[in-house]
Amino acid sequence: MKLKEKADAGVFGGSGFYSFLKVKDKIEIDTPYGKPSDSVIIGDLCGVKVAFLPRHGAGHSIPPHKINYRANVFAMKELGVKHLFSPCAAGSLQPHVIPGDFVICDQFVDRTNSRNDTFYDGPHTTHISTADPYCPELRNIIIKAAADLGVKHHAKGTVVVIQGPRFSTRAESRWYSSQGWEVINMTQYPEVTLARELEMCFVNISLITDYDAGLEGNSNIEPVTSNDVVKIFKKNNEKIRELLFKAIPEVSSIKKCACSSALKGAVIS
């Protein structure tokens, strides 16, 4: 499939982002893995062409376990995207990570099930390394942008990705917290590994909206509800836009990154 439009950077996220882009086009893309969550918006940001795709579709109609992650990531690759930004709402598992904070994750733990999580189903066996799944170059760009803007952030953290759409039980939340993991989310996997399989740089920006099922020993914190998530996310949506708008123009400074050669030595023939 040949697409006329091309983009330098891609964003998965909510509709509030592209309202500030100079929108150039809105295109439908078909992939070998089906249709993406929605049409892709192509816009311009300080000379950088940006492709935007709402991962949950129009009106947040697709739950996390039903998102066609392969189609979403493949569509970005078809558009020529090399750098993918993945802002998301997330819960905190630790008392020092408070609602309204940002966490630029450097690790994930997968607790999902039955998701289509690879492009390589054969005939050649392919084992990519995910020892360090998030692009260090993009992470540095986001961390610097957050510092420059005075946005409270944590420069690293582990996100545990659950299947959803339900929230955790108290027992599950206690277990995740006891492991020292900072963040809980429903969409980071397999987005990050699919991007790695297509040799794209990928970065996560977790906006903390809640304390999951509460914190051990603190009875004043209630378990998360959908209303809590939406309330905090909307309150901090402007910060997400500011962070992305400051960071995205910096992708041109990335000259070489290990992400672009992730398949080297991965294929067993």
Question: What key attributes describe this structure?
Answer:
single chain, about 270 residues, alpha/beta, Rossmann fold, eleven-stranded mixed β-sheet, 6 helices, about 25% helix, about 25% strand
Q: H/E order of the elements?
A: EEEEHEEEEHEEHEHEHHE
Our count of helices gives 6
Could you describe the largest sheet, including whether it forms a barrel? 11 strands, mixed
Strand content: 15-25%
**CATH first level of the domain at 86-268: which class?**
Alpha Beta
Note the overall shape: globular
- Could you say what the CATH topology of the domain at 86-268 is called? Rossmann fold
CATH superfamily of the domain at 86-268: Nucleoside phosphorylase domain
Mean pLDDT: 89
Q: Share of helix among residues?
A: 10-25%
Describe the structure.
It is a single chain. With 269 residues, the chain is an alpha/beta fold. It is built from six helices and 13 strands. The chain has a domain at 86-268: Nucleoside phosphorylase domain (Rossmann fold). It has helices at 69-78, 136-149, 170-178, 188-197, 226-235, 237-247; strands spanning 9-12, 22-27, 40-45, 48-53, 83-92, 102-103, 107-111, 125-126, 153-154, 158-162, 183-185, 201-210, 267-268.
